[in-house]
Design a protein that fits this description.
The protein is an alpha+beta fold. Helix content is 53%, strand content 12%.
Length: 674
C-alpha cells in the first residue's frame, strides 16, 4: 500500500494538473474556489476510503515478512515423518533489509521534523498577525477593523482586519483598497488560506502543494477583482491603474490576502478576458472519474472477515524474510459451487479471489491436507482443512515459466514474480491476449491487460461495441464496460440525433445517466433543443453545443417540469444558458411570483439573475418602499444592495439630516462614506 502521506501527495498533484490543464483559465471563479477547497480536503480523505474488492485494481499483495504457520503435530508417525525443520540464514538479505529500514526511519524522522518546523511557523504567523491587529491604531468600520501600519508594506487583510498605511495613497486609491479587502473579508478568504497553510504543514515536501496554494491565492484575487468590477462605481481602467500603484515589493505574511506584485500581470489579463461560456462547465465533471480511478487503483480493498473457532488458529513457529510475497495464510468460504478465498500475507496485505470447486484437486474435510488450483499463470498450493463450509491454512504460489515465456512472445513482459500472481488471480490466459490482437489491439502491456480482464471485457463485448463504434480504443473500452455502455446504448444515442458522437461523449453522457428518452425530452422542452434537433444531422457544431447543454442540464437536474414552470410565468423564449443560470442560482417560480406581487410584472431573465445573485427579496423591496421610495426600478434595488445601501443605512442618514427622495442619492452617499 502506498504510504498515506505519499498517496495524499499523489492525489493533490493529480488534482493540480487537472486544474491547470482544464479549469485555470475559466472565469467561473466561485466554482474554481469550491474545486480547490474540495480537492484539498479530498486528498486527505480519499486514501482512507475502502473500495469493494470487485472494483479494486490493485495488484495482489506480496509480503516481505512471511509468517509460516505450522499445523498441529498429529500423534501418528506417518504425519510426523512429513514435517521438516528449515532454518535458513539470510545474511546478505538481512543486511539489505536493515539498511532499507534505517533509511526509511531516517526519512520518517525528517518528515516529522519538517512538519514541526512548518507548524511552528504557522502558529508564529497567527501570533504576529493577532499582535499587530490589536496593538496598533484601529478604525472600526462596522464589522471591519482598519489597522493603520507604517512603512512600505502592501495592504492586506486577515480575518476581519485590514492592514494599510493610509499615508501612502490618495483618497480614490485608498477607497478602492478598502473595498477590495472588504470583499476578501466578506467572502471569508482567510479560511481558504488557513486551510492551504495547514495542507502545507503536512505536505511541505511536495512542490505541487506549494503550487496549489499559489493557484488558490490567484483564484481568490480573480474572484475579488471580478466582484469589484461588478460595482457600477468602479471603472476597469482606474481599478487596474490603482493596482499598479498599490503593489509593493515587500510581501506580508502568507496567511493574509494581499496585493502581491507577482500576480498583477495575471490579474489584469484575467480582468480583460472574455467570460467563459456556461457550456464549458462539463469539464468539472471529469474530476469525479479521476478520483474513482485513484480509489480503484490504490485504496485498500475492503476485507471480508472470516470467523473461525479458536481451536483452528494455527500456532506461529517461525518468521523468515523473503523477496517474494507468494506465501501466506488463506481463509475460505464455500458457497454452492464457488469457493471465495481470502489471501493474507501480512497484517496490511489482503486480497480475495473466487474459484470454482472444479478447479481444486480435492478439498480436505475435517482433517489436515493439501490441495491445489492450477491456472495458466501457475499453481496455488494450499495446506489446511475445511470444517463445514469454512476453511483455513497456508498457501504457496508457484509461477509457470512456460507461461511467462509464451506471454513474452506475445509482447507482454512479466518482469516480476508478483506479475504472475496478479495474472493468476485474474486468470489472464494466453488466448485472451491473442483475442485482443485479433481485434486490432496489438500494442498491449500488462497494465492494460489487468483492468481489461478484471472487467471481463471479452471478444463478444468488443465485437458488439465495434459494430456501433469502429474507432474504439482500449482506453475507452475500460470506462465503457465499467459504466455499462453497450451497443444498444450507443444506437439509442445515435437515434436521438447524435450521429457523430465520439467515445468520450458517450462516456460523458452515460456517466450523467443520460439516455435517448432524456435527449428527446430535452429537444422537446427547450427552444434551442428544438432548433438543434433539426440541425444536428447537418451541423457538427450545433450537435456539439446541444450535447454539452444536455450534460449540463442533467448535472443541474433541469427537467421538463422545471422548464414548464417558467413557461407558465410567460418565459417562453429562454435560452439554454438562461435555464442553466436559473437553476444554478436556485431561482424558483415562487421567487419570481414574490416580485410580481410587489408590482414588478415583466421581469427580464437578466434582471432575475441580478436580483438573486445579490440575494434580494420582495421583503427588502418593501423595506425601501416603507422609507418613501415608491418609484423603484430593479437597477436601483440591485445597485443599493451591491453597495451596501441598506434600509438601516438610509435611516441613519435621514437621522443626520440627509433626506433624499431618490434612492440613487443614498447610493452615491454610501460610496463616499466607504
Amino acid at each position: 500500500m502506498i504510504p498515506y502521506i505519499l498517496y495524499t501527495a499523489l492525489v493533490l498533484s493529480a488534482c493540480l494538473v487537472f486544474y491547470k490543464l482544464l479549469l485555470q483559465k475559466e472565469t467561473f471563479f466561485h466554482l474554481n474556489r469550491f474545486v480547490l477547497l474540495f480537492c484539498m480536503v479530498l486528498a486527505f480523505i480519499l486514501p482512507l476510503v475502502p473500495v469493494p474488492q470487485q472494483f479494486s485494481l490493485r495488484e495482489v499483495s506480496e509480503k516481505k515478512h512471511i509468517e509460516i504457520s505450522k499445523t498441529p503435530i498429529e500423534k501418528t508417525t506417518a504425519i510426523q515423518s512429513k514435517e521438516q525443520t528449515v532454518e535458513p540464514v539470510f545474511t546478505e538479505e538481512t543486511k539489505q533489509i536493515v539498511n532499507i529500514e534505517t533509511v526509511s526511519q531516517f526519512l520518517v524522522y525528517l518528515y516529522w521534523f519538517g512538519v514541526l518546523i512548518f507548524g511552528l511557523n504557522f502558529l508564529m504567523q497567527i501570533v504576529i498577525l493577532v499582535y499587530r491587529a490589536y496593538s496598533g491604531s484601529v478604525i472600526q468600520d462596522g464589522k471591519f477593523r482598519i489597522v493603520e501600519i507604517t512603512g512600505d508594506k502592501a495592504p492586506c487583510s486577515f480575518a476581519n482586519n485590514i492592514f494599510i498605511n493610509p499615508e501612502k495613497y490618495e483618497w480614490e486609491t485608498y477607497d478602492q483598497i478598502l473595498q477590495h479587502e472588504k470583499i476578501h473579508i466578506e467572502q471569508k478568504h482567510t479560511v481558504d488560506l488557513l486551510l492551504a497553510e495547514l495542507v502545507l504543514i503536512f505536505q511541505w515536501f511536495n512542490p505541487f502543494a506549494w503550487q496549489w496554494r499559489k493557484a488558490l491565492e490567484i483564484n481568490l484575487e480573480f474572484l475579488t477583482d471580478d466582484k469589484m468590477l461588478q460595482q457600477h462605481t468602479v471603472e476597469r481602467e482606474s481599478y487596474q491603474f490603482s493596482l499598479l500603484k498599490v503593489a509593493a515589493p515587500q510581501f506580508p505574511l502568507s496567511l493574509t490576502t494581499n496585493y502581491n506584485q507577482s500576480l498583477l500581470k495575471k490579474r489584469i489579463i484575467m480582468m480583460n478576458s472574455k467570460k467563459s461560456n456556461v457550456n464549458t462547465t462539463w469539464k468539472y465533471f471529469f474530476l469525479l472519474p479521476i478520483m474513482v480511478l485513484f480509489v480503484c487503483l490504490f485504496n485498500q480493498p475492503a476485507a471480508q472477515s472470516q470467523t473461525l473457532s479458536s481451536k483452528e488458529k494455527p500456532e506461529q513457529h517461525a518468521e523468515i524474510h523473503s523477496e517474494m510475497k507468494t506465501e501466506g495464510n488463506w481463509f475460505a468460504t464455500i458457497k454452492g459451487t464457488a469457493v471465495n478465498i481470502q489471501f493474507k500475507s501480512d497484517e496490511n496485505s489482503t486480497s480475495s479471489n473466487t474459484f470454482q470447486l472444479s478447479e481444486f484437486s480435492s478439498l480436505p474435510r475435517e482433517k489436515q491436507g493439501e490441495f491445489t488450483a492450477t491456472r495458466e499463470a501457475g499453481t496455488m498450493s494450499f495446506t489446511g482443512k475445511f470444517e463445514g463450509d469454512k476453511g483455513m491454512g497456508t498457501y504457496k504460489f508457484t509461477g509457470n515459466k512456460e507461461y511467462s515465456a509464451a506471454m513474452q512472445k506475445e509482447g507482454i513482459v512479466l518482469s516480476e514474480k508478483s506479475d504472475l500472481v496478479v495474472f493468476y488471480m485474474i486468470n489472464i490466459k494466453q488466448s485472451y491476449v491473442q483475442m485482443l490482437k485479433k481485434q486490432g489491439y496489438t500494442n498491449l502491456d500488462k497494465d492494460q491487460l489487468i483492468p481489461l480482464a478484471a472487467l471481463d471485457i471479452n471478444e463478444a463485448y468488443i465485437t458488439s461495441i465495434k459494430q456501433a463504434m469502429t474507432d474504439i480504443s482500449l482506453d475507452n473500452l475500460i470506462p465503457f464496460k465499467a459504466l455499462g455502455i453497450d451497443k444498444a446504448y450507443i444506437d439509442e444515442i445515435r437515434k436521438a440525433g447524435y450521429k457523430d458522437v465520439s467515445p468520450d461523449k458517450i462516456i460523458a453522457l452515460k456517466s450523467q445517466g443520460i439516455d435517448g428518452k432524456y435527449i428527446a425530452d430535452f429537444h422537446n422542452a427547450t427552444n434551442e433543443g428544438k432548433k438543434n434537433k433539426v440541425k444536428s444531422t447537418e451541423d457538427n457544431n450545433d450537435e456539439k453545443d446541444s450535447n454539452d447543454d444536455i450534460i449540463a442540464f442533467k448535472s443541474l437536474n433541469i427537467d421538463q417540469a422545471f422548464i414548464d414552470s417558467f413557461k407558465k410565468l410567460g418565459y417562453n423564449d429562454l435560452s439554454n444558458s438562461d435555464l442553466m443560470a436559473l437553476k444554478s442560482l436556485n431561482i424558483t417560480p415562487e421567487y419570481v411570483n414574490s416580485f410580481k406581487k410587489s408590482g414588478f410584472k415583466d421581469i427580464r431573465a437578466e434582471d432575475l439573475f441580478a436580483l438573486k445573485s445579490q440575494n434580494i427579496t420582495s421583503d427588502l423591496i418593501q423595506q425601501y418602499r416603507d422609507l418613501g421610495f415608491t418609484n423603484l426600478d430593479i437597477e436601483d434595488i440591485v445597485g443599493a444592495k451591491a453597495t451596501g445601501t441598506t434600509p438601516s443605512f438610509i435611516k441613519s442618514m435621514k437621522g443626520k439630516g440627509h433626506d433624499f427622495k431618490d434612492l440613487q442619492k443614498y447610493i452615491q452617499l454610501k460610496v463616499l462614506v466607504n
